[in-house]
Amino acid sequence: MKISKNYDLTKLNTFGISVSAKFFIEVHSETDLKELFNLPEFKQNKKIFLGGGSNVLFTKNFDGLVVLNKLKGIKILKAGKGLVFIKAMGGEIWHNLVMFAVNHEYWGIENLSLIPGTVGAAPMQNIGAYGAELRNVLENVEAYEVATGVKRIFSKEECELGYRDSVFKNKLKNKYFILAVTLKLSKIEKKNISYKVLKEYLEKNKTEANNPKNISDAVAFIRQSKLPDPKIIGNAGSFFKNVFLARRSLGEGEVKKKLEKLLEKYPDMPYFKEDETIKIPAGWLIEQCGPANGTSWKGHRVGNVGVHEKQALVLVNYGGATGEELMELANKITTSVREKFGLELVPEVNIV
Ligand code: EPU
Q: Is the dihedral of CA 191, 194, 195, 199 positive or negative?
């Protein structure tokens, strides 16, 4: 295994931010991983684990060790009458796993087509799109504890998956290296096409949702028409999370009151009842605010950074931007949304 010094990370983060890591190493196997845990550079430095780099914003050079997860492999563990368990290694490209499932006609992750990043990053933030989330299909996660080098299997419950959230983003942050993920998929039709834009697209195109491939193709088309391709323009998908009026923290009465107050002032505000909460699309909130009165952030550009013209949740690097420039824009957006709506935006990307 080779440790590189002052390694350029520009191509390893989809924002395309030009930063470097003091040390850098690639891990290709479990043997590599065990070796890694014993290296002095590993023991003596702070470290981060990187997959596709599609959910990270580097604001400065990383003064530690970056470990790139390159462990590959997808296999069917066991298949019963209606169910199938698939294990994928953390360094696999997430979309390749989706394609594997779709080609075998296994249901469960077709709505998650084309989400950038790796399999290992999927449970970190409980990836989700078009009405589906990883937690609907996750069986378990295999991970190595960094401090001890001991392997542990996390059941789905132990992963504490929430909206774009997990135990690995919170109390176990940077404490585990995700080795592999096992999913429980269905061999029997189990479609999930209730998400408005997906349903409308299928109806409009008279597409039968009778196999995962049709749904996957539809999702891919919708994504590509709305979200910028990081190969062309630097971005990390949604920069912010959607806003939830949570009953747990506010109490049911307060949620109702807050929503009513907002709707009184902004009758067109979209909102969705989800489980026990009310979701307000952050993209809409951002679109209603802007750098000056009567302007919108959506499509706004300042120097090398901007807000995507088709999806206000996505911040972009037009080329040559620094992480600080992006953070400055993000902070201005957050402040304007707070001032106008009294709601707090929270970044979805990991800021390093
Ligand atoms: N909206 C606007 N303006 C915008 C964007 C959205 O008004 O610029 C409003 C509209 O009311 C729209 C609603 O937001 O109907 C929902 O929009 P969309 O379907 O595009 O979804 P989203 O809530 O903005 C979330 C995920 C995306 C995922 C889509 C589709 C988060 C933070 N983002 O966005 O995930 O692709 O749903 O399921 O939850 C990502 O995580 O990187 C990501 C792209």
A: positive
CA distance 130 to 196: 8
Closest approach atom of ligand 1 to CA 125: 41
Annotated active-site residue 189? The verdict is no
Q: Which residue has the higher pLDDT, 253 or 105?
A: 105
What percentage of the chain exceeds 70 in pLDDT?
Answer: 98
In the block, residue with structure tokens 């949740």: 313
Residue 266's Cβ-side half-sphere holds a number of Cα atoms within 13 Å equal to 14
Ligand 1 mean position to 133 CA, how many Å? 14
Closest C-alpha to 110, from 198, 210, 214: 214
Give tens-digit pLDDT for 125-150.
999 999 999 999 999 999 999 999 99
Neighbouring residues of 31: CB distance < 8 A, sequence distance ≥ 6: none
Residue type, 140: N
Q: Indicate the helix (H) or strand (E) that contains 83.
A: strand 83-89
Residue 255 — pLDDT band, cuts 50, 70, 90? Answer: confident
Point out the catalytic residue in the list 20, 54, 135, 164.
Answer: 164
| CA separation for the pair 231, 233 (Å, rounded) | 6
Question: Could you tell me if 56 and 349 are in contact, meaning their C-beta atoms sit under 8 angstroms apart?
Answer: yes
Q: Percentage of residues in the chain with pLDDT exceeding 90?
A: 94
Mean pLDDT of all residues in 104-118: 97
Euclidean distance between CA atoms 90 and 71, whole angstroms: 6
* 348: annotated active-site residue: yes
Mutate to test the pocket of ligand 1, among 134, 219, 238, 243 (most ligand atoms within 8 A of CB): 238
Contacts 24+ apart (CB under 8 A), 260-263: 262/341
> What are the pocket residues of ligand 1 if the criterion is a CB atom closer than 6 Å to any ligand atom?
129-130, 197, 226-227, 237-238, 241-242, 270, 281, 283-284, 287, 298, 311-313, 348
